[in-house]
Amino acid sequence: MPTEMCDYVGQPGMPRQPPNSQPNPFGSFFFAGLSFACQLLYLLDATRFYSLGLHVLGIHVCRATGQELVLILG
Q1: What's the whole-model pTM score?
Q2: Which site among 5, 23, 25, 43 is 20 to 30 Å from 74 CA-CA?
């Protein structure tokens, strides 16, 4: 068969999707919940990291108060 794309029946047409191409809803729910938990812990000053990615990279985020922003921007 030539190197053209085939559909499910082997006829030329749209490219075939991998058999398991749907996203996993449980994985998405778990990742969203974990991300929310990290952000909530950061807001409650329980951790110095805003997200898991920043934690892996070792980047600390410092929050600024309203007065600090006024002094910087004013």
Answers
A1: 0.51
A2: 43
